[in-house]
Amino acid sequence: MKQITLFFLFFLLLTGCKKELNISSKEQNKGIKLVKTSFLTLPDFDKQNYAEFLDNFIHNCKSTKSQKIYKRLCRDALHVRDPKRFLLENFTPYRISDKKGSSEGLLTAYYEAQIHASLQKSDRYKYPIYETPRDLVVVDLSTIYPELQYYRLRGRMQNNRIVPYYSRKEAKVHGLNASVLCYCDSKIERFFLEVQGSGKVILDDNSTMYIGYDNQNGHKYRSIGNYLVQKGEIPLADISLESIQKWLKDHPTRIDEVLNYNKSLIFFAKRDQGATGALGLQLRKKSSIAVDRKYIPLGNMLYLSSQLGNKKFNSVVFAQDTGGAIKGPLRVDLFLGSGDDALKIAGRVKSPLKLWLLVPNEKEAKK
Questions:
Q1: Considering the chain, what percentage of its residues have pLDDT values greater than 90?
Q2: Do 15 and 9 contact (CB within 8 A), yes or no?
Q3: For the domain bounded by 21-109+281-366, which CATH number is listed?
Q4: Domain-by-domain residue ranges, the chain?
Q5: Is the dihedral of CA 130, 134, 137, 143 positive or negative?
């Protein structure tokens, strides 16, 4: 395996880094532009469920990151009688566009996966779901270089050098120095559990265990859907989570080939509650979104305009999660809850997106 020194990895990150979105300043940040607008311009703003918005805002304020963003507004929200007035009087919408000036992005969706598993390995339950490996090295340089606060170097030590951690295929060959949370009955379901980032595990004794993302092997996420399209296996117009799952089940001898195309490998930890995002909060259906936090810091409130299937979807949402495939200022993954209905819808969402950041007016007054 090619060895990479810590200095070289650091150099690659430093030369390619992007600044964090600074919502307390009017300066245009690298990679993102904010244009002040009004609530009147937001699609279907008057059709919002404002009581639901307020409840979601209070829930979002349970995070310390959100409290730093909204300060007194988190306290004031507990005593609000008119949610719409609270929103209109305390926030200003800013349309988000990329550095080229485009304000249209892409919306996809995800859900809480459900798998069947056992704490003991058997002929049926033989596919391990791992905790973070003990030999995974995560290097955080943010204390020295604050601009790198969202970058992490992941690898393993070999001859006093950090080398890339095992890819999905290599992990199977070399094995992992990691504890096993449970064993599931399908490598396909295990793979999509990784893609979703959290799941509900139904154990063979009928008990339930919740697990969620804990770490990753450092390899970039690669879409197996794109791989199947490139290979001519599934037409682009037909690609969806369901069509990919069906193809894999219909071609058992090629499952490893396709899954190994995505070198990224996700490690899990037990959770006390259902689907939990990177902010540490339990995700809420059609309210929680995954973003690229290099552009949109977690905890921020936004307004989203897109489509779910044939229906318009315009709503206040909250940045509470991240994802390996979520890259750029106008790239959002919407959480749709759990169950078969969520799975069917989530697998087909790929819609044009417009996004506004809802900035607290108290921040405006400090500019």
A1: 70
A2: no
A3: 2.40.40.10
A4: 21-109+281-366
A5: positive
